[in-house]
């Protein structure tokens, strides 16, 4: 059986984040070498590294939705029976999904507005930086819908909480 499309999407995200991390490392190392060895720093390296880090954070935060590694207060859900915990989790996931869709909506407008402004050092539109916000929102929304589908399946199959399994890397 072929991999579901979201596994390919997750693989692309992971690969892109790894490439950006290597890029940021190389750019920062280049900045250090040119500044302290040649005493002539490159002016664009700090800004390029910042752009890369923003995108790394956006991609990593989207992954955190799948893994449920974001900070949560779980004292109340842990006191509930498994079925009630799943129902509460679905309700909270719906609220998070609504917030993500709002983030995508306003983040897109912010990125479009920032497209008119060029970055000082590397000369690309600021939308390249601000575009990480709606992309994070879309990727997270896709992932939270997939997590919710998994929780609904668990709820319908008798309430076994499948989301606590760390081995479920890509749902």
Architecture overview:
- With 171 residues, this protein is mainly α.
- The chain has one domain (5-164).
- 71% of the residues lie in helices and 0% in strands.
- The chain contains six helices and no strands.
- The protein has helices spanning 5-36, 45-67, 75-79, 82-114, 127-130, 132-156.
- It is elongated, with a radius of gyration of 20 Å.
In terms of topology, how is this protein built?
Blueprint: H1 5-36, H2 45-67, H3 75-79, H4 82-114, H5 127-130, H6 132-156
Helix pairs in contact: 1-2, 2-6, 4-6
Q: Structural class, from helix and strand content?
A: mainly alpha
Total strands: the figure is: 0
Radius of gyration: 20 Å
Oligomer: single chain
Mass-distribution shape: elongated
Number of domains: 1
* Low-confidence sequence ranges: 164-171
Strand residue content: under 5%
Measured as a percent range, the helix fraction is over 70%
Terminal Cα span: 15 Å
Mean pLDDT value: 88
Which short descriptors sum up this protein?
mainly alpha; disordered C terminus; single chain; 171 residues; 6 helices; elongated
Concise description?
This protein has one domain.
């Amino acid at each position: 059986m072929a991999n579901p499309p979201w596994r390919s999407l997750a693989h692309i995200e992971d690969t892109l984040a790894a490439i950006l991390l290597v890029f940021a490392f190389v750019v920062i190392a280049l900045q250090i070498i040119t500044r302290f060895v040649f005493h002539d720093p490159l002016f664009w390296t700090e800004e390029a590294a910042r752009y890369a880090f923003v995108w790394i954070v956006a991609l990593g935060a989207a992954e955190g939705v799948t893994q449920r590694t974001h900070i949560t207060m779980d004292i109340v859900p842990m006191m509930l029976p498994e079925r009630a915990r799943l129902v509460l989790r679905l309700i909270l996931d719906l609220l998070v999904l609504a917030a993500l869709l709002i983030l995508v909506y306003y983040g897109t407008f912010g990125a479009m507005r920032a497209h008119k402004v060029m970055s000082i050092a590397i000369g690309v539109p600021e939308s390249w930086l601000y575009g990480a916000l709606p992309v994070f929102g879309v990727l997270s929304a896709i992932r939270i819908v997939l997590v919710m589908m998994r929780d609904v399946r668990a709820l319908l199959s008798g309430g076994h909480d499948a989301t606590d399994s760390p081995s479920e890397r890509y749902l």
